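Run folding on both entries below.
>entry_1
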Amino acid sequence: VLQKQIGMVSLVDNSPSNLSIRIDNLWITPPFQGLKRSHASMYLILNWLFKSGYRRVTVELDERHIIGRKFFTRCGFELEAILRKHRIVGKRNSNTALLVMLNSDWQQEGREKRLRQYLQLPDTVTVKVAEMDVTTQMTLDSNTTKPSSKTPSTTIQ
């Protein structure tokens, strides 16, 4: 377990009534990039969200962001749609790739197991979440919490 912050991810568009949430602004500091820390963080976040009762987790990326799309695909997300002319970025139209993972994909389709194997994790990994103000800190051995209407920004340790 790392004892310092190595990046950040935001959980946005939280809809507890629909058991849906979107992952946004994932970044890992340069010294920890390329070490599968973002994959491990995504494993912890997805495991926590699905154990908390969420049934749909989405990610929106610029369609041209190939590295991001490959990363989320490795984590088990599937391309659901391309939202054409979804945003204007720098006076240009920007298409958005919508990637999705469902709770049934995570559990029944074996995506959790594949990501765990990719990370070379043991068969059992527990997730601990400690809430502090508006930040939820995730480590490998904390208690889970239930979804709430308040969406915290998540700091990865």
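>entry_2
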Amino acid sequence: WRINVPSLESWLSMLDKRFGVLTAEFFAEQVAWAKNMVRHLARLLVGSRPACDQRRPSRFARGLFALGLVHARLLPLEGLRPQHVDQDEWEQLFQESQAMGNVPPCALPQCLWQEQVLQPLIVSAHASLQEVQQACEFTMGCLRGALGDMHRELGLAAAP
């Protein structure tokens, strides 16, 4: 018997396909750009952190795909913030987990991103908004740790 366990890449591909169908590929160009960026983050996660129950690929895929939509300026970072996390802490976690300066601003008005990006994301992820938010928080925490590990191994200063 051969059992195929879905990988992070297969989960990301599935989310991309579902999101594309639900949005009639309206954001295909932005999502394609985001996918490229997310692949680099996925490699960082897979290469530096062992897989375990808490770190299942579906959870990382939800977080990475949603964060890719932030990078593509289709969602505001604030729209993915869990209620228990302070806004300043959330932005700092994002910056530290992405090794970036500023948080990219959303290019869409709230009425559009909520209905045409966030809702299809939730349906694509087969999750609640809270589960997507938790996946983002978990994924960013793991990315921050992976970047810190990489900097320590290379003898560099702490991640920005």
